[in-house]
Amino acid sequence: MFYCNNLTNYPMANIPEADNFIEEFIVEDLQNGKHDGRIHTRFPPEPNGYLHIGHAKAIVINFEIGKKFGGRTNLRMDDTNPTTEETHFVTNIENDIKWLGYEWHGDTVYASDYFGELYALALKLIDKGLAFVDDSTVEEIAEQKGDIDEPGTNSPFRDRSIAENRDLFERMKAGEFADGSKVLRAKIDMAHPNLLLRDPVLYRIKHETHHRTGDDWCIYPLYDFAHGQSDSIEKITHSLCSLEFRHHRDLYNWLIEALEIFPSRQIEFARMNVDYLITSKRRLKKLVEEGVVTGWDDPRMGTLAGMRRKGYPAEALRNFCMRTGVTKRDNQQEFDFLEHCVREVLNTSSDRFMAVLNPVKLVITNYPEGETEIFTTDNNPEDPSRGSREIPFSREIWVEREDFRKEPQNRKYFRLAPGKDVRLKSAYIIHVEGHEEDADGNVTQINASYYPESRSGNDTSGIKAKGTIHWVAVGEGLDIEVRQYDKLFSDPTPMDHEDEGKDFMDFINPESLKVLSAKGEPALATTKAGDTFQLLRKGYYTVDEDSTSDKVVLNLTCGLKSSWKG
To answer: Where do the tRNA synthetases class I (E and Q) anti-codon binding domain residues begin and end (predicted)?
Structure first.
């Protein structure tokens, strides 16, 4: 875990060097002695869905900056919309952040913790003549806003007295009015060039039960009011958010000045998009609700829960987020680079096993019937400290169907074919003699003989086999289910086609999941849900939570070879 709980006041000589533009702002503030050298960031997700790869970027930025500058990072749930929020989303958000390797300062906090203080701040705006209760409808307020080329028009309720506004707002809180009948708006400037400052709505009425406060409240602050004021209540020094909130910064700062509260500093960075992955909770929710995927944690999803279930290591996601940098412009990252980062970690950390995904039986005709032999093989040739394991060998073994050809097409084919010598991984060299097939020409059995002197580790046969294949003993092999995942979309940016009248759902890849009945070596029975390893010559796989004592279920994490060009 990376902890951000130890607060440090930096002596100027010890201030770390900035690696990006956000850190340049922070270094400047530290050098100027702002906030007495204190750094405090926060991550403020909405508990209305699962976190995705874009959130991972924000998490890494906030927590890594907190760690680098000896500061703190809060986890605050932005739970101001009782309609969409649920407690189980909170739990999953907390689990995702811990899985990524971060621990926040103190307990999880909530915008709802501050409902009383936010209400008091709203009354303060009213008392200063800077907010009013508006009876206009949603459509009327939108029409009043004008547009970028045309100033807005004042609401007919804008000139209500302070006393009347206070009375109406208090009665809104008391539940006297129906949903949508009134809102509280800031009184700023209906001709402001930033449309967000044209008397924005700060509070609305919602007679709905909140997941934490129950029915205590029937008015709820909007994001622009709850977010900045929560930052100030927590004395957040640097409010780091994605670029889409740039135009909100003007209102953020206006409220700080109008309310004379702690001056948190908002800094925006570019959100991260990744080819073939959706980073819109609304669209992710649609995929779940329409049954395109099995749930928020489906391994094809761009959610952290989905990527964890797929077998992506947290270290790989942190590396990916840090190596893609902190920029001021939205960017599109290659999916292949993400998987490159995954392979880098898994190559050194993963044990190796053997499994045959498309099995066909191979019979070693000169091997004693009924005999079983035990071989020893390395768990991970990249890391000898991970030890070795035993694998059983017998007269009948499973091999990959695609490893056999009736007639090799060229001289560089070194796998199974009549007359070819091939080594069985960690076992013997065999000589292919022939095969059997059904009436349709499908191979049903391969026949071979073995060289007894070619035992792996003690080969005195003098035979040089140019090819090596994996295998599983028939009598000892496990029945396993293998879920071969591919990209969920056929287009790398499925949301970019809306101008063409196409929906992102039009690009669902019908081949994104294939389920195989495979054979695995016995040691796979000792694995547990979440274990990730390499199946020799096939790829990296993770044991799925659907596995039982009777059946091992494996998810394809990623292939062995990278197509990322760097």
So the answer is: 468-544
Q: How far apart are CA 173 and CA 121, in angstroms?
A: 14
From-to residues of CATH 1.10.1160.10 in the chain: 274-351+481-558
Q: Give the CATH superfamily of 355-470.
A: Ribosomal Protein L25; Chain P (2.40.240.10)
What single DSSP character describes residue 508?
B
Q: 118 to each of 20, 107, 147, 219, 558, how far by Cα in Å?
A: 34, 20, 30, 11, 47
Q: What is the pTM of this model?
A: 0.91
Amino acid at 195: L
Active-site residue among 182, 212, 271, 343? 271
Q: What are the C-alpha distances in Å from 297 to residues 89, 123, 311, 447?
A: 12, 43, 12, 44
Question: Residue 213 corresponds to which tokens in the numbers above?
Answer: 């406060």
115: enclosing H helix or E strand: helix 115-127
β partners of residue 119: none
Give me the residues paired with residue 376 across strands: 390
pLDDT digits (tens, 9 = 90+) for 291-323: 999 999 999 999 999 999 999 999 999 999 999
Q: Mark whether 290 is an active-site residue.
A: no
CATH class, 274-351+481-558 region: mainly alpha
Distance CA 552, CA 470 (A): 19
Residues 239-256, buried b or exposed e (16+ Cβ, 10 A)? bbbbeebeebbbbbebbb
SS3 state of residue 343: helix
- How far apart are alpha carbons 258 and 373 in whole angstroms? 81
**Active-site residue among 281, 300, 318, 352?**
281
pLDDT digits (tens, 9 = 90+) for 177-210: 999 999 999 999 999 999 999 999 999 999 999 9
d(CA 407, CA 434): 11
Domain 2-269, what architecture?
Answer: 3-Layer(aba) Sandwich (3.40)
Give the list of residues 6+ apart from residue 306 with CB closer than 8 angstroms, or none. Answer: 50, 296, 297, 298, 299, 300
